[in-house]
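Retry 2 of 3 after timeout on previous attempt. Resubmitting structure tokens to design endpoint.
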């Protein structure tokens, strides 16, 4: 045999030995344990066997006829009824100038449009195949949608519900690390004409990157982004006071510090650049066991109101309609999706926030009846997600657990 073929045979044999050796080594090396889901991050050794867990939604939705809607309660003089069903995963809402209600989803990939046809609601699946299109906002004929990684726009949408236009990108690359955790976004148009959106912390209690645990804003004309508020673990609802124009927002406190701590919170940002404490300080007065070492809560802007531990406040709106009594004007309605990281569950309602003569907020229940058994698994039959004031002054409430939207009215037969 000539030297060249001989060398080829030797090289092939060596390569085969290397492959077999690597395969054997891999077979003997134990597989790395699977990473725990992000909601378990932050548990201590005593909590490893905790039965607490998030609750899954009905991904196909439910008919209103299947649900105990008659159990819902509102104050005297008010009425609550099912406004539309057949919207699986219904989350954030936006109102079009022609009365179209646009509805985003988090665990699904769709955006819905609900049209009132002579008192009957028609639900259309407007957009499909998106990446957690939780945030929706509407302005001057344009629908804006916030997905996991980008914000897009759909111009002239109300005239094209059956044939929506192609998406135009406002900004993308909003999650360059593609991390799990609180990736879904709320979206709203501010008084300054800019789109405000949240980027949550990538885990329960971690050190966030510069663009995480924040509320940012983007100019839809230029695509220029600014951080507006930092130290915000996960806000999935905000609005501007009708008189002061200051930004108010809900925030979810961290998990796995016990049943009673920390509170979820309501905040007001009086200016750009404030820091609200995460991950160092929770609820304005509780230092984190790990990240709070050698820090002080006095460094950060405290909340305007503690809402309760693990009640999951989400969508919120100031009431600016004319249907409800005058004392409701400029009050805040907050959709509380309800607790899972708590042995005795709470939340699962819509709460009203009232301001006293000195401008200090206090809260009281407004829409209740979703919570059935505070110790059961699951404890509820529905979960409020967002609230929105309609042109006639009524209040819509979305429920992603069942894919339903409820309407609260006052003084109507």
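Retry 2 succeeded. Sequence:
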């Amino acid at each position: 045999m000539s030297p060249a073929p001989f060398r080829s045979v030797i090289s092939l044999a060596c390569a085969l030995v290397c492959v077999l050796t690597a395969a054997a080594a891999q077979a003997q090396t134990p597989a790395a344990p699977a990473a725990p889901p992000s909601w378990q991050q932050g548990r201590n050794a005593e909590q490893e066997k905790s039965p607490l867990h998030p609750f899954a939604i009905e991904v196909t939705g439910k008919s209103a006829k299947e649900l105990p809607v008659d159990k819902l309660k509102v104050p005297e003089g008010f009425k609550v009824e099912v406004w539309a069903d057949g919207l699986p995963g219904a989350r954030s809402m936006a109102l079009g100038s022609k009365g179209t209600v646009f509805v985003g989803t988090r665990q699904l990939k769709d955006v819905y449009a609900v049209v009132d046809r002579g008192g009957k609601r028609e639900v259309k699946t407007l957009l499909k195949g998106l990446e957690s299109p939780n945030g929706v906002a509407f302005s001057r004929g344009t629908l804006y949608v916030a997905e996991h990684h980008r914000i897009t726009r759909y111009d002239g949408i109300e005239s094209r519900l059956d044939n929506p236009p192609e998406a135009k990108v406002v900004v993308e690359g909003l999650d360059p690390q593609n991390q799990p955790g609180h990736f879904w976004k709320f979206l709203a148009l501010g008084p300054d004409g800019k789109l405000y959106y949240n980027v949550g912390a990538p885990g329960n209690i971690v050190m966030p990157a510069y663009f995480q645990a924040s509320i940012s804003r983007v100019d839809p004309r230029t695509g220029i982004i600014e951080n507006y508020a930092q130290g915000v673990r996960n806000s999935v609802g905000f609005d501007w006071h009708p008189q002061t124009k200051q930004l108010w927002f809900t925030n979810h406190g961290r998990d796995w510090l016990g049943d009673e701590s920390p509170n979820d919170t309501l905040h007001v940002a009086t200016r750009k650049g404030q820091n609200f404490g995460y991950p160092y300080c929770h609820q304005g007065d509780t230092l984190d066991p790990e990240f709070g070492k050698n820090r002080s809560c006095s460094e950060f802007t405290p909340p305007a109101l503690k809402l309760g531990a693990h009640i999951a406040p989400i969508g919120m709106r100031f009431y600016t309609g004319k249907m409800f009594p005058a004392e409701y004007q400029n009050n805040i309605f907050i959709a509380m999706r309800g607790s899972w990281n708590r042995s005795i569950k709470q939340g699962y309602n819509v709460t009203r926030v009232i301001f006293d003569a000195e401008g200090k907020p206090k809260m009281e229940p407004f829409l209740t009846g979703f919570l059935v058994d505070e110790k059961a698994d699951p404890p509820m039959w529905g979960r409020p997600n967002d609230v929105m004031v309609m042109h006639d002054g009524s209040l819509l409430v979305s429920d992603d657990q069942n894919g339903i939207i409820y309407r609260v009215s006052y003084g109507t037969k």
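Attempt log closed. The radius of gyration is 25 Å.
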